[in-house]
Amino acid sequence: MKDNKYDIIDIGGFVSKISNVLTMLQLLQSGRKYSISELSNELEVSERMIRVYKEDLEKAGIYIDTIMGPYGGYVLNQSVRMPVRKFKMKDAKLLDKYITSEKDKDIKDELILLQDKIKGVYIGSKQEEKELNLKDENGKKYNLLTRAIKEKRKVKILYYSYGKGENERVIDPAEMFLFQDGWYCAAFCEKKQDIRHFELKRIIKYELLDEKYE
Question: Are 32 and 39 in contact (CB under 8 A)?
Answer without folding.
Answer: no
